[in-house]
Amino acid sequence: MIKAALGHTVRTTTLLQLLFDFGFVFVGILIAAMWIRSGLPIDPVVLVSYAAILALTLLAINSWLGFYQRIHDRTVEDSRARAVLSLHLAVPVAYLIFLILPIAQVDRVFLELSGMAALFGMLSHRVFASHRKTKARVTHRILVFGVGNEAVKVTAALNQEDPTIQVVGFYPGPMCKDIVVPQDRVLPQTMSLVDTAVFYKVDEIVVAMDDRRGGRMPLRELLDCRVSGILVLDMSSHFERMLGQIRLDALRAGWLIFGDGFRQGVRRSFIKRVFDIIAAIILLIIFSPVMLVTALLVFLEDGAPVFYRQERVGLNGRLFNVIKFRSMRRDAESDGKPRWAVTNDDRTTRVGRIIRKVRIDELPQLFCVLNGSMSMVGPRPERAFFVDQLTKEIPFYAIRHSVKPGVTGWAQVRYHYGASIEDAVQKLQYDLYYVKNHTLLLDLVVIFETVGVVVGGKGAQ
């Protein structure tokens, strides 16, 4: 993994896949042009523009289809199906680009052939790479420093997050008394920590000690490991880096206070606000026909009002009215008691179930973005009743209100639709990651993945 210049952690393999896919199409077209350039004197500007646009378009399509997501149990057949679908989507887009660019007919024939060849070659390589990856996965070897309850938590999370990760064993810290992990997984202390890590070819050490006070941490040995090229992380940093979340069960207030992140400067706020306004205007223009049809369908099924206004908690705990298309019956809370919206909620109308599934009910929130109450990307705005309840029961919950709530968010694209305190805990871990690391890059990643969620129909059921 690498830390991107704008703050968000990016997996090295994903970045290399993106660069390879872009380069395969872009360079492939340029090489083909040079090969037969004497017969077809193509305008270099048009050629480079076409190659770049087609390569970027294919990256967008592949991203929507999940080529770059961390899905480890994907079969070769699934990868092939996605490659075929990507090719079918890319071909009409390529022809549309042909029509837009000022290309002569003789050049058009060449670009069509070279573009299709590059697309087919790249997607064939993607299927081959997926097939090879299922046969031989690179293993990331981790040594857990500690043998107590914290070490058990780390191992349980590692077993769920990535099958390419291998825990080589547990190294007891100084003065360790209670050993909770399996005895046969405890590494002998006949060698120093750094020698043990080198012997077992460890890539990373995760410090998972129940008590780190009073000089109980062997700082010198951990420093030796670090300068030897072995990554050393505490539990919170490890989960942040590997899972894109800040785990509450590994979180300490000191880590939040003294760590990096939480950049809320004037420059960042200005860039985010400009991005919000431009994105909201563009989306309102694009989806205005969809919004008009939705408003008509909501009215025909259940009458007025078409919109649903409700008080929510926003930036720094201030209240504002969120606007959505009404997806529930008018008497959904006739008893006056707030209730969680749940999957397959019996209070939703027929139109409501559809627009919630594809997130159309969220579109009117773009007006909240324009008036400054919300952002395009941020934590989901909650009702004051639930905020009061969750703040009392979940530590650090109030931190999510240090940024504006969003139409979409990191938690929404990473976690399924939640409707309980347990779900709120899980989503808060992603919200904390966003609040700590939010950048323009991460906003673009969230919006890009939101498109995939909508296209794949992965919204509320």
Automatic annotation (TrEMBL):
Q: Which UniProt keyword terms apply here?
A: Membrane, Transferase, Transmembrane, Transmembrane helix
Q: How does it sit in the membrane?
A: Multi-pass membrane protein
Instruction: Tell me yes or no: is Transmembrane among this UniProt entry's keywords.
Output: yes
Entry-linked InterPro entries? Bact_transf, EPS_sugar_tfrase, Sugar_tfrase_EpsB_2
One GO MF annotation is: phosphotransferase activity, for other substituted phosphate groups
Q: Which GO terms describe its cellular component?
A: membrane
Q: Which residues form the Bacterial sugar transferase domain?
A: 272-455
Its annotated compartments are: Membrane
Q: Where are the transmembrane segments?
A: 12-36, 48-71, 83-103, 109-128, 277-300
Q: Which Pfam families match?
A: Bac_transf (PF02397)
- Please give the family membership noted in the entry: Belongs to the bacterial sugar transferase family.
**Protein name as it appears in the record:** Exopolysaccharide biosynthesis polyprenyl glycosylphosphotransferase
Tell me what organism the protein belongs to: Rugosibacter aromaticivorans
